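hi!! sorry for the late reply, been swamped w classes. u asked for the two structures so here they r. pasted raw, havent cleaned anything up. first the sequence of the first protein and right below it the tokens
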Amino acid sequence: MQHISNDKIQQYLIDNPNVMPSQVADALKVSELAVVKALPKDEWHSIPLTEMDGLFNCLPQWGNVTTIITVSGNIFEFKGPFPKGKYARGYYNLIPKNNGFHGHLKLDDITHIVIISKAFRGKESYSINFFGRCEEIVFKVYLGRDEKGALLPEQVEQVKQLINPV
């Protein structure tokens, strides 16, 4: 990873308004977290790591979301409810109700949680992004959409409560 000034990242974002943070990171050879932190302040909000357990307790109640994992340029997507989980043997183990999305999260390696509200392909979008020790994205959870492609309003409300708790 290179060190590039925030100003250069911001200029790239201005010149390329439709690119996603991951694309900017690849193009500039910087971490995705560096790109996120260069976004306009109204497009991202950091969630304290102390709120992680609460977040994982409420996510399964939100209904259908899209969880994205990117590894070596490959993108894996799961559309459906985020599963409940429990801690065991150093991991947060995702336990689906049926044969759904499951896995083992090493939450001790999560260093940043960031909510991004940036339009994607001309549509309002929200994602909860989990970053690792090297400022890399570990996984993202995007809010669900209805059959017309609109965000689910109850999920938008949930995210807004995370951003601005009462």
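now the second protein. again sequence first, tokens right under
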Amino acid sequence: MIVVAPFLFSKRFRALALYPFIFVATTADAQDQVLLQHERIHFRQQKELLFVFFYLFYALDFLRNLFRFRGNAHQAYRYICFEQEAYTFEHDATYLNSRKLFAWRVFL
């Protein structure tokens, strides 16, 4: 389910996947198939890690990267293993059909 909620977003982010919802900043974002594919990849990641472990591991990976990149939050975010998988395959509309379980592990 896609929910347009501009009040949730800063200028840096346009969408957020919190299963079963995809929150987007604008109605245009709600039509952006690449953005929606990115968030659907996060749905799959969330489900395979039973949701709570996804958020825990996401935060830990961000903190690890923050240390690794000496406080550069944007770079730390981009190198989160879940984000790397989502950014890598967001243009492939068929990716989720062939995605292997725990595919994000290759980005660790």
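hope this helps!! also noticed smth abt the second:
The two ends are 30 Å apart (CA to CA).
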